Amino acid sequence: MRALETCLYADDLDAAEAFYTAVLGLTLHSKVAGRHLFFRLEGSMLLIFNPQASAQAGDVPSHAGKAGGHACLTLPREQTDEWEAKLRGHGLEVTRYAWADRGESLYFCDPAGNVLELAPPSIWGLE
């Protein structure tokens, strides 16, 4: 098995859309204004829900959550320095953490306060 979807929450979907497209360069797959944003990743999807709207009953089970979650997206090991500079260039505070010889993670927050991480799969021995 592998993860097909990762879900985070944001009260301001306009700010989330701007951040995930402009800063991270993700491709928006679809959206419903005021409810959710769906971004295509390599082999999976990143779903950003407005917590109030997604808690309402609908055709699918509600997604009741709140901002403050965590997601880690893959990063080629050789691009760590480049991505750190890019994130800092967007005014983000970045924490860099070394996992011994397995690689390094870059931690930062999106506008909603979700903690994001960019890391090579090798931190989990997946390369």
From TrEMBL:
Task: Please give the Gene3D superfamilies that the UniProt record associates with this protein.
Answer: 2,3-Dihydroxybiphenyl 1,2-Dioxygenase, domain 1 (3.10.180.10)
- Chain coiled-coil ranges: none
Ranges for domain VOC come to 2-121
What domain of life does the UniProt record list for this protein's source?
Answer: Bacteria
Pfam families given for it?
A: Glyoxalase
The stretch of residues making up the signal peptide is none
Query: This chain belongs to which protein, by name?
Result: VOC domain-containing protein
Q: Which organism is it from?
A: Deinococcus xinjiangensis
The taxonomic lineage of its organism, from the top, reads: Bacteria, Thermotogati, Deinococcota, Deinococci, Deinococcales
